[in-house]
Amino acid sequence: MLGRLKLWFAPVLYRLLSASVRLAGGGTGHRPDDRPVIFACLHRDMIASILHLRRARPALLVSRSPDGDILIRTLARDGYAFVRGSTGHRGGPAFRGLLDALRGGRSVGIAVDGPRGPFGVVHDGVLQLSRLTGAPIVPLAPRCGRQVALANWDRTVLPLPFTRIEVHEGDALTVPADADETGLAACGRRLAAALLTPQGAP
Predict the structure, then answer these.
(1) I need a surface site. Which of 13, 39, 45, 130 has the fewest CB within 10 A?
(2) Has residue 201 been placed in a domain?
(3) What is the mean pLDDT of residues 111-127?
């Protein structure tokens, strides 16, 4: 029953938010030179980040869970592409799908601490994608004027209708092609610090 309610409610809520929220800077998500990039956010900030990127329409990494099915049903009509699975196992189908998207010239979007957390911990897959393709990682740190924070593992932030959303695009981070484990860890810490921006009114 709860699953059916979420399947019905999520598209309705997304349409309401799309029509009513005010996005600082227009929420384009486009890069100045139109290069493919890796847009990165925390699971907590997925809703605001997707609203920010709705004109750029990157290929989104979506889990194979029922919640992933709901996300695809909600966003499919807006022209997003989707890669199903997780980047947790390098070389898996999802990782290869993201590689193909980037090498084909399409940006991608990843919640870097998903799908099961822990909260705020950057998983290795996003760093390996940058290392192998040279695509810069652009951290997205949203701030909502009015919001509700859910009491789940990822502390999901739900923007309220008619609020103002400001999404800060942090400095792009490109992982060097020759990065070793120490270099990857350092890049992961830099990315996590950019994403763990305190939430609050823009």
Answers:
(1) 13
(2) no
(3) 86
